[in-house]
Amino acid sequence: MENNQVDLSEFGLSDEELFAHVDHSAFESEKITAPRYSYWRSVFRVFFKKKINIVMIGILVLLLLLTYVYPLFINYDRFANILDPNAKHLTAAKALDYFGFSIHYILGSGSAGEPIFDAMWTGARISVSLAFLVALINMTVGILAGAVWGFSKKVDVVMTEVFNIVGNVPYELLIAVLVLIFKPGFWTMVFALTITGWLAVAYFIRTQVIIIRDREYNMASRCLGTPIWRIATKNILPFMTSVIVTYAALEIPAYIGMEVFLSYIGMGISEMSLGKMISEAQSAMITPGWEFEFWSPVAISAVISIVLFVFGQNLGDAADPRTHM
Amino acid sequence: MTKYLLKRILHGIFSVVVIVAIVMVMIYSLMDKKLIFAHDSNWTKQLNNNKTVYEYRKWKDFGYLDYVAYGDWISELIKKGELAAEDRTKVAQLGRTPDKDSETVREYVQRFKEYYESQGYTVKRLDAVMQGGTKIAVGGNQTLFAYKDIPLYVRVWNYFTNIIKVDNIHRAEEVQGERGITFTWFDPAYGGKVFSPAVMGNGTYHKYLLYCDSQFPFIHQNLVSISLGKSYSVKQNAEITDTMTRTQGSWVGSEVHYPSGFVEVSGDDLHTATYQAGSLNTSALLAERYTDDYTNVDTVKNGMSRMGYSFTIGIISVILTYLLGVPIAIWMAQKKDKLVDQIGSVYVVFITAMPSLAYIFIVKAIGNATGIPTTFDMNNPTWLMYLLPIISLSLRPIAGMMRWLRRYMVDQQNADYVKFARSTGISEGQIFRKHILKNAAIPIIHGIPGAILFSLVGALITERVYVVPGVGGLMIEAINFYDNGVIVGVTLFYAALSIVSLIIGDILMSVVDPRINFTSKAR
To answer: Distance between CA atoms of B15 and A167, rounded to whole angstroms?
Structure first.
């Protein structure tokens, strides 16, 4: 037993250095000891701590400028060069030679002699707008409906049944029917993708709400008589912010991909979107010298999707309060 | 458990009925009826009144409405004995316009009208279309018919009661010889000398009800058939189940012993013979080979069926997903935040975010560059042509597996039971394999039945890009051609698969994890 005792004199320290007496301070005890915490400030602090996120924001801003601002300054007309037989299917080098150096032709020209670079961004504007709009509508309706769905047991029984049924009606058929009733176009597609699309979001949110709903702190809240609305907005919604942001990050690329897919199978919108460019330029993929017509829209749709995805994932991570330590 | 299962199955059947009803409303009520003729060359050839009659007749065939022609009604009367057969021409001869009808005709037309209008039909009479003064234009003959829209519930009822058909000896209208079922140990299709038991019917729709051959599963039956609906525009009158399961490619010859004793090298598969009324005497070719009206046969072909190709590609890609995805996910979880994990995460991000069309084309371009066949050729099959479709199909599921299994495993790493296991001193490898994986795999196991069953339906983009003659594009093809029978049938097939795979997934999960119990009441 004696061996276990530590002889303090071995360290060569005086009693003053080992212990110091702290007096009671009336001033200090008035202070609340927890550090100041602001949710959104912490989110941005965590978000910007990763260098890759700053790069991502840079690329994202550049992409959005090219998609939304660049088309405003060019006067893009797909069929402007249609009568010029020498302007069609030119590679980048030949196009720059033929038209003189300009940014429009740095990727060559397409099947109607149109500049691929301009066509790409005009198409991207439609595809990205569609994806943003559809995701926005689906997320808004889905979150609101999902919250109600998760909270009420009666609604749950009915909505689960509706979800099982509507989820199995092929959406290609729905789009085909709606396109026949209305005229095919941007707004019809937005309508077709949102009329049932919100259900999937709502189901996801419902599951999240059910997981959090019966946690102890919420039960305590309910026992103390907090109204449901307050529990929903103050206890549950902050918990779900990160989940929602992560989900939204998945949604937007998913709808860009969906638009490309639908155009490929011939059910896309009538406007010249990225998907339509890809499906029209399919044969150019294996034709020597025409590759840019095909790969440019493919590459740009991939880049936009990946940047949006990574940005959203990291924002979602940063929005999780558990990472704020 | 049985009670719970029964409830789930009944629930599933209800959902399927509602889904089919919704789809029926969409295509039979919301879409324009005339769209189904868009790709029908016969329709474009028809003129004037004949066109209208042709439309109504086809609408009846494909379940849009009920249609009765005046002539059919008269035949019915003759059959019942209410009208003498020799009076037929006198009664059936309509005038060019109603006021030109003879006295008898007018009387019968009135009866036709009263009879069908009392049953809710609409009676329609088309006057002759004249060309010049006296000549009737081509296809412009006067006609009289009654039609009635079929209400939704009748349509749904008819559809579901006709799905399962059991063959019986009263299905054929007229047969030579006695109706009945015969059993033989020596199948005449092989010359009657080889031992091969078969059950054959006379009066049934299929000639062979049960037979054996060298193809897996060696014993085949035609007694019970599933009919999901008929195609109109993609493939006239073909059953959907046949379209999915019939072999494709060019025919393979073998020595065939026809019922008449005629022997020839041919691709005909006598086991698929079905009844076709009065077909024996339509051509000398058939009369030489057959002795009865069971002349409608399929040919043996060298390729697989549409579903066969889709399933081959699908199932290999599912196996690949689990074989590659699971170990990689475990590896990533073990080396969390190390190089392996980071490389894996980059892959997951790329594949999940990129439009699937984009990476499939990239795979195809790589295949092009390395000389792997990028298109499917049924006549010169090589194993190499399956390679690119399988790779394209596996990329995303592998990424999904890596993403989710890694997530679940990382979440489990801080659980109390893991800390306890670690404190007992067993190795990290064992903790991962025996403790964490077992718990993390439960949600993954739930998806296995779905993954296997859904490889039956094929993959649209992959099949289109690599020209695989699979089943994936069936739905889109049907929608583009307004082929309503196929749309309904395929929807039913998909819905049934998704419901069955959910139920099996739940059962599997409760078998693997005894903590999950569906029978006890939720708290």
So the answer is: 11
Mutate to test the interface with B, among A50, A160, A265, A279 (most CBs of B within 10 A): A265
Please answer yes or no on whether B27 and A169 come within 8 Å at the CB atom.
no
Distance separating alpha carbons of residues A249 and A60, to the nearest angstrom: 13
Interface with chain B: mutation pick from A173, A219, A304, highest number of B CBs within 10 Å? A173
Is B376 part of a structural domain of the chain? Answer: yes
Cα-based distances in Å from B125 to B61, B95, B225: 21, 11, 40
Specify the pLDDT at position B198.
Answer: 86
**B127 and B83 inside one domain:** yes
Residue A9's pLDDT is 63
C-alpha span between A232 and A228 (Å, rounded):
6
Residues on chain B touching A253 (C-beta within 8 angstroms): 352-355
Distance CA B294, CA B278 (A): 9
* Strands B268-274, B296-299: pairing kind: antiparallel
Q: Is the pLDDT of residue B497 over 80?
A: yes
Task: Kindly provide the ipTM of the predicted complex, given to two decimals.
Answer: 0.76
- Of A39, A57, A135, A117, residue with least CA distance to A277: A117
Domain of residue B347 covers: 306-468
pLDDT score for A136:
94
What's the pLDDT score for residue B396? 92
Give the global pTM: 0.81
Domain ranges of chain A: 39-76+115-324
Per-residue confidence (pLDDT) for residue A1, from 0 to 100: 44
Contact (CB, 8 A) for B413 and B405 = no
B241, part of any domain: no
The answer to whether residues A110 and A119 touch, using CB atoms and an 8 Å cutoff, is yes
User: How far is residue B21's CA from residue B152's CA, in Å, rounded to a whole number?
Assistant: 7
Low-confidence ranges of chain A (pLDDT < 70): 1-18, 32-35, 325
Contact residues of A toward B, CB < 8 A: 161, 164-166, 168-170, 172-174, 176-177, 180-181, 250, 253, 256-257, 260-261, 264-267, 278, 285-286, 294, 298-299, 301-302, 305-306, 308-310, 313
Pick the CATH number of A39-76+115-324 from 3.30.428.10, 1.10.3720.10, 1.10.10.10, 3.40.50.2300: 1.10.3720.10
Q: How far apart are CA B191 and CA B207, in angstroms?
A: 16
Tell me: pLDDT of B292 over 90. Answer: no
DSSP A128-196: HHHHHHHHHHHHHHHHHHHHHHHH-HHHHHHHHHHHHHHTTS-HHHHHHHHHHHS-SSHHHHHHHHHHT
- Say what the pLDDT of residue B321 is: 93
Provide the token pair at B105: 């005709």
pLDDT digits (tens, 9 = 90+) for A109-128: 777 777 888 888 988 999 99
Looking at the fold, whether B341 and B441 belong to one and the same domain comes out as yes
pLDDT for the residue numbered A6: 61
pLDDT in tens, B351-389: 888 888 888 888 988 888 888 888 888 777 788 888 999
Tokens 């039979």 found at: B28
Q: pLDDT > 90: what percent of chain B?
A: 8
| Mean pLDDT of the B202-216 span | 82
Sign of the CA dihedral running A151, A154, A159, A160: positive
The number of residues making up chain A comes to 325
Query: Residue B148: beta bridge partners?
Result: B66
pLDDT in tens, B382-423: 888 889 999 999 999 999 999 888 888 888 887 888 889 989
Closest Cα partner for B27 from A80, B19, B516?
Answer: B19
Measure the CA–CA gap between B223 and B206, rounded to whole angstroms.
8
Tell me whether residues A170 and B350 touch, CB distance under 8 A: no
Taking the CA of residue B23 and the nearest CA in chain A, the distance in Å comes to 7
At B523 the pLDDT is: 40
